[in-house]
Amino acid sequence: MNLKKMYLKVFTLLIIVAFVGCSSDDDDDYGNWVESSTFDGYARGNAVAFVIGDKGYLVTGYDGDDYLFDTWEYNSEGDYWIQKADFPGIPRSGAVGFTLNGKGYLGTGYDGNNELKDFWQYDPVLDKWTQKADFGGTARYGAVGFSVSGKGYIGTGYDGSELKDFWKYNDVTDSWELSVGFGGQKRKDATVFVIGDLAYLGSGIHNGAYENDFYSFNGTTETWTRLKDLDDEDEDYSILLSSGVSFSLNGKGYFVTGEAGGLTRENWEYDPLTDVWEEQPSYEGTPRQDASAFSFSDKAFVLMGRSGSYYFDDIWEYRPDEIVEDND
Predict the structure, then answer these.
(1) What angle do CA 219, 197, 193 make, to 5 degrees?
(2) Does 6 score more than 80 pLDDT?
(3) CA–CA distance from 215 to each of 104, 201, 223 (Å)?
(4) Which of 125, 199, 247, 326 has a CA that sits 20 to 30 A from residue 181's CA?
(5) Using CA atoms, how far apart are residues 201 and 213, in angstroms rounded to an integer?
(6) Looking at the 3D structure of the chain, how many domains does it have?
(7) What is the structure's pLDDT at 327?
(8) What whole-number distance in Å separates Cα of residue 25 and Cα of residue 123?
(9) 222 lies in which domain range?
């Protein structure tokens, strides 16, 4: 073989290797789920979760036998749990929570006999719970709660029938007022995530049917805007579920797991710039409903929940920019 032909073969081989390498990178799936430290307390579903700074808090819930009142703090950097001051209100499940001005808030829920409407504040510095003014609407469970533009909101849920009202909480005056009208359907067991000053609400069930409408709420103007339906006929997806969990991360929103004619592990990512959903690598934990979620500036976690009468105590971190690796 002359030298020219040898160089040609070597050059061709290098091109093939480079092409294969690039193709392999292009085919990699991003969005890795990694199991974190197991929760130290009782397994449970329908707990309240909120984030203050770099700590996540998990409170109340139901473990299949008892309604719970313990409070746990999760250190997302160290991956460990610390038990904090017990919640002093009635033990419950199906309550809602949110963070406002460095404090955590928890209200509504169900104690096994009655719907509830009491409302509480948690101070992480003092590790202390304080009862505040009762929620302004009817006692309920299966509602949603969020905070935007310096105010807290609770709405939808179930008080004997599904609901669609929203109430605004002012932490300075410790008072509630009925918020602007929500044009969507009544529902319970919906989910909500917040990106900037916009809250995004969807899913849930009404009259035994899954709701497909999806809305954003502007906290500055206090207006609701209907977005593309979760089963929009122009898009190739259908995201109809209840009792799922949601979070926001890196400017995107996520709906994960839940009940959709059966339990699902699906993981859907929402881009607010295009108003389009895209399916991502499935949740690697057991499919479940009534889970909770923590969302920090650079990481998010899905934890707890139940499958039938089995309750979970695992916690999974989602890393959207990491290549998928099974069983890690």
Answers:
(1) 100
(2) no
(3) 25, 5, 10
(4) 247
(5) 9
(6) 1
(7) 67
(8) 47
(9) 30-323
